[in-house]
């Protein structure tokens, strides 16, 4: 899970390290699915209704996986569950909205991406002392905010612009998830190396 606890930073415990590392496959699966979905979004000739159904189903899928993930800063699982439920609810809102218009789809996705971006930026900054990859998270959070502005800038919004913004967001989200998946697999070894160095100094 990219979004972390934005309100407090701290130090890792070995239990947290092992917990986060063991959930690497969730990041990998959601990353691969997001990249594939982004490619489908970018290279399909959509109607507004079909795009709403596809994006809604994608967010529902990701929301379920997010609820089973572990925050990458070792924060409590409640953050994963809360954000996963939010993603699930946004997906349902887009999916079941009767006769969705482009403005409705773009607004719902835009506000969700803006919230996710702000949370990611906050989590990256507060977790910079314990996250070796916090700069990646910060970059992605800023990218999410930019994408959200594209979706929320309603004047002149076209289906092509919405597809472009959502597709790019999915692809970059997937790349970030996969990069984080490989990072967290290295965390136990990195922790052992640090412990070994500390013992050698003592």
Describe the overall structure.
It is a single chain. The chain has a single domain, classed as Alpha Horseshoe (Serine Threonine Protein Phosphatase 5, Tetratricopeptide repeat). α3 packs antiparallel against α4 (77-96). Mean pLDDT is 78; it is low at 1-10. The chain has helices at 14-22, 24-42, 48-67, 77-96, 102-126, 134-152, 159-185, 187-201. 76% of the residues lie in helices and 0% in strands. It is mainly α and 202 residues long.
Tell me the layout of helices and strands.
Blueprint lengths: L13 H9 L1 H19 L5 H20 L9 H20 L5 H25 L7 H19 L6 H27 L1 H15 L1
Helix pairs in contact: 2-3, 2-7, 3-4, 4-5, 5-6, 6-7
Q: What are the key terms here?
A:
elongated; 202 residues; Serine Threonine Protein Phosphatase 5, Tetratricopeptide repeat; mainly alpha
The helix/strand class is mainly alpha
Radius of gyration: 18 Å
- Sheet bearing the most strands, described? none
Regions with pLDDT < 50 over 5+ consecutive residues? 1-10
Q: Given the C-alpha coordinates, what overall shape results?
A: elongated
Number of domains: 1
Note the run of SSEs as H and E. Answer: HHHHHHHH
Number of H/I helices = 8
- What distance separates the N and C termini? 36 Å
Instruction: Please count the beta strands (DSSP E, at least 2 residues each).
Output: 0
Helix content: over 70%
CATH class: Mainly Alpha
CATH fold-type name: Serine Threonine Protein Phosphatase 5, Tetratricopeptide repeat
């Amino acid at each position: 899970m990219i979004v972390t606890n934005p309100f407090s930073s701290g130090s890792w415990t070995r239990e947290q390290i092992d917990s986060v590392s063991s959930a690497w496959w969730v990041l990998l699966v959601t990353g691969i699915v997001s990249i594939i979905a982004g490619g489908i979004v970018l290279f399909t000739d959509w109607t507004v209704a079909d795009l709403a159904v596809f994006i809604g189903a994608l967010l529902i899928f990701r929301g379920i996986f997010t609820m089973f993930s572990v925050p990458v800063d070792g924060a409590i699982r409640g953050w994963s569950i809360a954000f996963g439920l939010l993603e699930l609810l946004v997906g349902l809102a887009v999916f079941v909205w009767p006769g969705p218009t482009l403005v409705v789809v773009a607004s719902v996705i835009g506000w969700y991406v803006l919230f996710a971006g702000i949370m990611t930026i906050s989590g990256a900054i507060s977790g910079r002392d314990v996250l070796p990859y916090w700069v990646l998270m910060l970059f992605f959070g800023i990218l999410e905010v930019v994408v959200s502005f594209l979706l929320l800038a309603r004047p002149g919004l076209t289906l092509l612009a919405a597809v472009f913004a959502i597709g790019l967001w999915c692809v970059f989200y997937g790349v970030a998830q996969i990069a984080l998946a490989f990072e967290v697999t290295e965390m136990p070894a990195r922790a052992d190396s640090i412990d070994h160095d500390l013992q050698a100094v003592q």
